[in-house]
């Protein structure tokens, strides 16, 4: 443990000594979301340096929150949550639910990193609900603050979803035109996806089957269904 103890007997304080070092909870969230490799975790947490990430992973291993597993044949290293870390799931869900209800939509949607949004979106695509062929989707964000504003998502039956920030050279099946804050809002349940489509803030074009089944093969955040979410007032705030 690298942080100075609070010097309190309270069990909550003792838990904070383990979980509050910066980025620890966010790393747990990435592991929870399915990332296991160093570069995957780093991609999902663009604000952390490689040096600090390596330090935190080592500390979390020492605290029994994750296992470091090395494949002797390939040299690949995976970081896997332990049962001890998995016990935190309900706590983290509760914290996220509290934020969804009590942090205003304006604050929750102030970041406009399209790269981070698309990194999460690619996890939410149900390939089995798509046509049994290669499918190419192009997402363009007019307000992106990240280096890229256009992304291509490529799916193939039985394969991992591929995310590209440069044109892969395939014909596009579906075009999505929107803004980061709009699509993030819909993804998090802070905005009405249907209302934004109706108002033209999310524009879908291309293969009609993909357009009509969009919300079947793309599932939004697990936290988007929280009761009493602090939502955007569509009538008061324009996109």
**Proportion in helices:** 25-40%
Beta-strand percentage?
Answer: 5-15%
Instruction: Catalogue the unreliable spans.
Output: none
**What's the rounded overall pLDDT mean?**
92
CATH topology of the largest domain: Nonspecific Lipid-transfer Protein, Chain A
Number of separate strands: 7
Describe the protein.
The chain is an alpha+beta fold and 239 residues long. It folds into two domains: 11-87, Winged helix-like DNA-binding domain superfamily/Winged helix DNA-binding domain (Arc Repressor Mutant, subunit A); 107-217, SCP2 sterol-binding domain (Nonspecific Lipid-transfer Protein, Chain A). The chain is built from twelve helices and seven strands. The strands form two sheets. The protein has a five-stranded mixed β-sheet. A two-stranded antiparallel ribbon has the order 1-2.
Task: Please describe the structure with a list of short key phrases separated by commas or semicolons.
single chain, 239 residues, alpha+beta, Arc Repressor Mutant, subunit A, Nonspecific Lipid-transfer Protein, Chain A, 2 domains, two-stranded antiparallel sheet, 12 helices, globular
């Amino acid at each position: 443990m690298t942080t100075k103890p609070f010097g309190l007997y309270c069990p909550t304080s003792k838990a904070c000594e383990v979980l509050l070092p910066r980025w620890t909870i966010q790393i747990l969230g990435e592991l929870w979301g399915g990332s296991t490799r160093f570069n995957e975790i780093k991609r999902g947490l663009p604000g952390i340096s490689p040096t600090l990430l390596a330090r935190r992973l080592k500390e979390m291993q020492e605290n029994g929150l994750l296992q470091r597993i090395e494949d002797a044949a390939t040299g690949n290293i995976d970081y896997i949550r332990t049962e001890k870390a998995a016990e935190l799931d309900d706590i983290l869900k509760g914290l996220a639910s509290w934020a969804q209800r009590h942090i205003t939509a304006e604050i929750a949607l102030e970041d406009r990193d399209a790269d981070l949004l698309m990194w999460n979106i690619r996890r939410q695509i149900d390939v089995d609900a798509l046509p049994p062929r290669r499918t190419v989707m192009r997402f363009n964000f007019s307000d992106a603050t990240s280096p890229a504003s256009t992304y291509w998502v490529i799916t193939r039956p039985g394969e991992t979803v591929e995310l590209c920030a440069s044109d892969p050279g395939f014909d596009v099946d579906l075009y999505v035109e929107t803004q980061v804050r709009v699509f993030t809002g819909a993804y998090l349940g802070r905005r009405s996806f249907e209302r934004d489509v109706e108002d033209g803030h999310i524009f879908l074009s291309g293969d009609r089957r993909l357009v009509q089944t969009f919300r079947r093969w793309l599932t939004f955040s697990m936290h988007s269904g929280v009761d009493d979410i602090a939502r955007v007032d569509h009538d008061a705030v324009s996109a």
